[in-house]
Amino acid sequence: MKRVLLFLIPFCLTFNACNWFKETPEVGLMLAEHFNNKLYKKFDTAEYNVIFKKHLDSLKGGFSNPNTVVAFYLQNNGEPRLVNKYFANGGLDSLENYISRSEEHGFNPQVFNFKKLKTLMAQLSANDFKSISEVYPVVADLELNAAESLIKYNNFIYYGSLNPRKLLSRYYVPVKRPDSLSITAVLATEDLTKLLHDIQPASESYRELQSAMLKKKRTGKGDDEALKTLKVNMERLRWKLPDLGEEYVEVNIPDFSLTWFDKQDTLSHMKVCVGAVREANYSDKLKLYAKSGSLDDKPKNHETPILYSKLNSIQVNPIWNIPVSIARSEIYWQAVRDPYYLSNNNIKVYYKGKQVMDPDTIQWNKYSREKLPFQFKQGSGEGNALGKFKFIFDNGSSIYLHDTNNKSGFARGNRAISHGCVRVEKPLEFAERMVKDKYQYDQLRMEVSLPPLDTTKMEVYRKKLAKKADTVNIFQLKPKWFGPKKPIPLIINYVTAWSKNGVIQYRADVYGLDETLYAAMKKFM
User: Fold this and answer.
1) What value does the mean pLDDT take over residues 10-19?
2) How many Cα atoms are found within 13 Å in the side-chain-facing hemisphere of 118?
3) Per residue in 139-151, is it b (16+ CB within 10 Å) or e — as a string?
4) Are the C-beta atoms of residues 53 and 78 closer than 8 Å to each other?
């Protein structure tokens, strides 16, 4: 009896709690009316709550969000809210029906406890109870299992089954994930059927992949790899990405492309080169490096990260601040082999923030690569690795889009060849779209020795060319900055299947991320 009182007291202390303890609670009246059976009018709240508490204790260990579920039912006094509101009006039937068709999204219905839910619905629907005490465990089980099925189905279908930020080491897109507030809102929904309808992915892109997956399953013509690719990319489309707005730029790593979108229209499309694939057996080599600490053991990983940001500026005639990793792995060895490599490539050397005026005299063999005390910057000009344009956006990976002085890479099929940044095939076209201002664009063109489109500025252009050709005063090319009127959303994405003009396009899994996602999703299929 003490255990019963301890469970009931918190309920009675909450606002309106004791409405649940009236002679025949609402759930009893609902069942009595629905089945035209007076047995349910004997429904006793105190007796039911003892059974409910036992079932909650035994089941919560298997819940995906146990703390939220327990808090919800504590706040609602243990009332079987889902059964009460949605058993008679068909809401729970809708839940059962949607879950039965979850294979349409690539999931096994059992992930959402389908058989248990179906069995409990059948038990209560049979209306075959000899005493009211037989009703309590069925109602309690149905309530808790329906709650868990609903939460998990909602989370998987509306948000995706995986959190990419936890699974992928270089995923920096702030995807929205379910939390206690959103889960509580689902359990407290006032229209379950509408909620189930509204959470279904509705984008044309998703529906086309879904249709292709179902067709391959139905006809048996889909090979395992194609189905795998479709399922993984459907999962990507379930993730809640930031709102990109109507106009945005997307880099698709596996497609080695950049597209400038305005709503559904493509304003610009061009090739890109992205980061090279990490070394084979990367994880094992990383463990070896962690033990030895030797840079010779450090495996290379130049893969371009997946990220979201906003393009905010263009640096014309950029300076390349050479990353420490490249300085240690490449620049150091070049300088050791050729003392004139640095000056010949317009690379300046800095020591404690001050420029070393004669870097060709540095005796590199005296310095350890692991503790190299120098910093390196490549000056503006034709030989600069960044070319004539650097497109900048905030991120924590020192990544940017840029031009290149080596255009041959764009002729390759596999363009995963950079150190991690994204090389753009048509930087001038991209710059024009960014500034969206004729005056600014002409100024930008003249900085890279191109004539202005406005012919009235030709005299200004000729003077700039003359100044650059002045060998007496030794003209020094310096970076100039230009900016868009407002920042432009950018997503560097990883998509290996999509529909184009009704035909599914497939791309190679260049970084092996499909394999990583599929391995994590497989237990849900």
Assistant:
1) 47
2) 11
3) bbbbbbbbbbbbb
4) yes
pLDDT at 431: 97
Q: Residue 270: is its pLDDT beyond 60? A: yes
Beta bridge partners of 354: 351
Q: Provide DSSP, 43-75.
A: --HHHHHHHHHHHHHHHGGG-SSHHHHHHHHHH
Contact (CB, 8 A) for 244 and 489: yes
Q: Which residues contact 462 (CB under 8 A, 6 or more apart)?
A: none
**Are 335 and 342 spatial neighbours (Cβ–Cβ below 8 Å)?**
yes
Q: At 349, which amino acid appears?
A: V
Q: Tell me the backbone φ, ψ of residue 156, rounded to 5 degrees.
A: -70, -45
Q: Which of 8, 151, 26, 169 is nearest to 85 (CA)?
A: 26
- Rounded to 5 degrees, what are φ and ψ at 486? -145, 150
pLDDT in tens, 177-199: 999 999 999 999 999 999 999 99
Residues in the chain, overall count: 525
The Cα–Cα gap between 198 and 102 comes to 15
What does pTM read for this prediction? 0.90
CA distance linking residue 239 with residue 457, whole number of Å? 49
The first and second tokens of residue 505, run together, are: 């396009």
Six-digit token pair at 473?
Answer: 């005063």
Q: What's the confidence (pLDDT) of residue 474?
A: 67
Average pLDDT, whole number, for the chain? 93
Question: Which pLDDT score, from 0 to 100, does residue 471 have?
Answer: 65
pLDDT at 87 over 90: yes
Structure token pair of residue 184: 């509580």
